[in-house]
Task: inverse folding
């Protein structure tokens, strides 16, 4: 038996290793499955390395930028080099503080805006490397009595980013609204028009599509689209985007389809909030 | 040892690629390092070791593909290893021109396999035409980056084994 296996090891490995991924795909492709041990292992391994390297790249970028700047100062005026260094250091520190302050203010603003919601901060550690999905990986901070789960909404002070599709070891994969699999129940603010926002799957353009019933009146440019809460996933009232070029409306079966520009540009998001359902005591 | 170092290299390149591309604002032009590693393995490794390593490289790619189905890249890399091995028995696929061609063909096969497995296992994926258009820049950047990454893999291999892989264009 051993000899047979050794002689046919390539054939055996081809059969086993072609069937195993198919089984994994079947297992993980089913709707509503939890995070499996293999997924947790893969996510924690990749997430930890991405998180470390993202921090390292940010730190190195600062270092290189500062170093080049100082070399330039030294070359231009040696006598003022020390003074420049001190001032530059102060300026950068002040700038960093200002950016941090601004970021914190925004997060506080978000908290005020969505007081009813229980949420924890998250930091983007990785973005998609394939053209097939629009999914970012975030490192989620542990909150008191809060655990990030599948289907939780992810927001910034500007609006909705997407939803959590997978969670493991402090990391969450967040499907952003432009992913072709994304569906969000929405309403047009002030118009009472209900619809569904669907992702386009586009990598660079941050447009999505809004489908509303053909019986509804035509929408005007700039109409604000927000979550309606009807999908039982996203809390009501989070801004999704605004209608662009409504004259290019297309009819798709029983629906009119509008282009919607997202309120949040997913490529620039670095920090966000993972939102739990509304707090029962505030309702 | 050789396979372990190659897998580790692919892992590190994947980990470094995201933040660097984000800083450069070039996420659309990401390089499919797993595909290049599999082409290299198919051209330079014995069938058994190369095949197992290709599947593990696929697992690494799955780990760095948020939103994807676990196992998809493993299956794709296994198939691409067998396809490239077939080509490598007839051509020197690691020469610059054949390499670009093989990388393009493999990228095309990969796109088709992603669509096929998405239809079978992940019915939510839609908008195939826009996804296909989005996949073209990556196919191109992967093909061109092969000219950089294959010598890198060769160099790593040379350091481990103390020899280099050379040969004529056609294998007769």
Result:
């Amino acid at each position: 038996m051993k000899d047979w296996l050794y002689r046919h090891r390539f054939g055996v490995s081809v059969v086993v290793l072609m069937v195993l991924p198919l089984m994994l795909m079947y297992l993980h492709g089913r709707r509503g499955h939890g995070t499996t041990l293999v997924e947790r292992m893969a996510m924690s391994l990749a997430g930890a390395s991405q998180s470390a390297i993202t921090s390292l790249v940010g730190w190195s970028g600062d270092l290189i930028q500062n170093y080049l700047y100082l070399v330039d100062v030294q070359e231009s005026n040696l006598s003022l080099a020390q003074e420049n260094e001190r001032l530059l250091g102060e300026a950068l520190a002040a700038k960093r503080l200002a950016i941090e302050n601004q970021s914190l203010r925004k997060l506080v603003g978000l908290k005020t805006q969505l007081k009813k919601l229980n949420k924890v901060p998250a930091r983007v550690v990785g973005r998609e490397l394939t053209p097939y999905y629009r999914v970012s990986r975030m490192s989620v901070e542990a909150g008191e009595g809060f655990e990030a789960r599948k289907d939780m909404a992810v927001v910034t002070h500007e609006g909705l980013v997407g939803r959590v599709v997978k969670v493991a070891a402090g990391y969450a994969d967040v499907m952003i609204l432009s992913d072709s699999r994304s569906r969000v129940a929405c309403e047009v603010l002030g118009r009472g028009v209900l619809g569904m926002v669907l992702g386009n799957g586009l990598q660079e353009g941050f447009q999505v599509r809004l489908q509303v019933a053909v019986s509804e009146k035509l929408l005007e440019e700039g109409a604000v689209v927000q979550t309606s809460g009807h999908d039982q996933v996203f809390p009501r009232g989070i801004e999704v985007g605004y209608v662009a070029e409504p004259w290019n409306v297309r009819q798709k079966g029983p629906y009119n389809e509008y282009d919607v520009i997202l309120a949040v540009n997913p490529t620039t998001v670095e920090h966000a909030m993972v939102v739990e359902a509304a707090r029962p005591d505030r309702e | 040892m050789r396979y372990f170092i190659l897998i580790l290299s692919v892992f590190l390149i994947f980990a470094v690629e995201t933040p660097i591309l984000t800083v450069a604002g070039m996420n659309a032009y990401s390089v499919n390092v797993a595909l290049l590693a599999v082409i290299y393995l198919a051209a330079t490794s014995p069938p058994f070791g190369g095949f197992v390593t290709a599947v593990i490289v696929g697992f690494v790619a799955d780990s760095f593909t948020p939103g994807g189905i676990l196992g998809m890249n493993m299956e794709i890399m296994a198939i691409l290893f067998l396809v490239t091995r077939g080509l490598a028995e007839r051509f020197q696929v690691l020469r610059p021109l054949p390499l670009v061609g093989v990388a393009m063909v493999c990228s095309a096969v990969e796109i088709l396999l992603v669509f096929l497995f998405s239809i079978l296992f992940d019915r939510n994926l839609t908008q195939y035409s826009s996804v296909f258009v989005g996949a073209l820049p990556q196919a191109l950047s992967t093909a061109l980056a092969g000219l950089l990454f294959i010598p890198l893999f060769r160099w790593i291999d040379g350091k481990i084994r103390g020899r280099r892989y050379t040969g004529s264009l056609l294998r007769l």
In short: The first strand of chain A starts at residue 117 and ends at 126. Residues 37-76 of chain A form the longest helix (40 residues). Residues 279-283 of chain A have pLDDT under 50 and may be disordered.
